[in-house]
């Protein structure tokens, strides 16, 4: 009698514009999953909660791990960032570091068992890389195809809200994302970038599975967590 093997690890990335509630949804989903899946990990959240020196060291370790585990992918990613002409030199360094860091986290997650939830991942990293780039989104995403295909999650949760809600949330933040300020060129470009990434994920056969979660109200948050947990449960089991 044949038996169906159980998936040892499942990686979930939350993708969306700043202000849609990716981190909140991710953390609530982790709590909802904890009773059925003993190993539910939120590595990005855990690192972000650390004091600054420890946080930087942890991110650096994962960035180095990405270069060690996948040197060709890391080199191709660096070349793609240069070709994208993404803002100033300091912007490119910061974006490159973050992209290698999240890719390293995802590569590490493949080596351990459990469910890994990421409120930042490679798709969000590519979005950040393109925010101040001079290249059009379609070309830019093509250039990052190597890292997107080789470091892909199993499920992408596409988190959305209407523009008025997003702008209100961003304006109410004390630590708002200044790269993505409402009523700026970057804001409009960021919206186009998200739609381009969403279209790529939803229309490409080799892309990971995806679900769209509307996150406007408390009721949306609750129902969204339930849908995410159900989707993860069906993939992981």
Provide an overview of this structure.
This is ATP-binding protein. Keywords: ATP-binding, Nucleotide-binding. GO terms for molecular function: ATP binding. This protein has 237 residues and is α/β, with parallel strands linked by helices. The chain has one domain: P-loop containing nucleotide triphosphate hydrolases (Rossmann fold), CATH 3.40.50. The chain contains 11 helices and 5 strands, in the order βαβααααβαααβααβα. The protein has a 5-stranded parallel β-sheet with strand order 2-3-1-4-5, sandwiched between helices. The N terminus is likely disordered.
How is the secondary structure organized here?
Layout (H helix, E strand, L loop, with lengths): L8 E7 L6 H12 L6 E2 L1 H6 L3 H18 L1 H14 L4 H21 L4 E5 L3 H9 L6 H7 L1 H6 L4 E6 L2 H10 L12 H19 L5 E6 L3 H19 L1
Helix pairs in contact: 1-11, 3-4, 3-5, 4-5, 5-6, 6-10
Structural class, judged by helices and strands?
A: alpha/beta
Could you give the order of strands across the largest sheet? Answer: 2-3-1-4-5
Number of strands: 5
The CATH class is Alpha Beta
What coarse outline follows from CA principal-axis ratios? globular
How many structurally independent domains?
1
Indicate the proportion of strand residues. 5-15%
What is the mean pLDDT? 89
CATH superfamily: P-loop containing nucleotide triphosphate hydrolases
**Rg measurement, Å:** 17 Å
Largest sheet: 5 strands, parallel
CATH names the topology as: Rossmann fold
The poorly predicted ranges are 1-5
CATH architecture: 3-Layer(aba) Sandwich
**What is the helix/strand order?**
EHEHHHHEHHHEHHEH
Tally of DSSP helical segments: 11
């Amino acid at each position: 009698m044949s038996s169906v093997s159980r998936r040892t690890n499942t990686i979930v990335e939350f993708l969306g514009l700043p202000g849609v509630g990716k981190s909140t949804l991710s953390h609530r989903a982790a709590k909802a999953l904890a009773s059925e899946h003993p190993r539910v990990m939120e590595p990005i959240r855990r690192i972000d909660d650390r004091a600054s020196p420890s946080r930087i060291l942890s991110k650096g370790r994962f960035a180095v791990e990405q270069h060690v585990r996948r040197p060709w992918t890391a080199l191709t990613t660096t070349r793609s960032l240069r070709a994208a002409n993404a803002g100033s030199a300091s912007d490119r360094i910061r974006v490159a570091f973050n992209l290698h860091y999240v890719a390293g986290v995802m590569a590490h997650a493949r080596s351990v068992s459990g469910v890994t939830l990421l409120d930042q991942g490679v798709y969000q990293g590519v979005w950040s890389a393109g925010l101040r780039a001079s290249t059009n989104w379609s070309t830019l995403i093509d250039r990052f195809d190597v890292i997107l295909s080789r470091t892909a999650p199993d499920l992408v949760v596409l988190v959305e809200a209407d523009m008025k809600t997003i702008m209100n949330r961003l304006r109410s933040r004390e630590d708002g994302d200044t790269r993505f300020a409402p009523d700026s060129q970057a804001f409009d470009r960021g919206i186009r970038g998200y739609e381009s990434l969403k279209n790529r994920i939803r229309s490409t056969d080799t892309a990971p599975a995806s679900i769209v979660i509307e996150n406007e109200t408390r009721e949306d948050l609750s129902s969204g967590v339930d849908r995410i947990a159900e989707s993860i449960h069906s993939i992981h089991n």
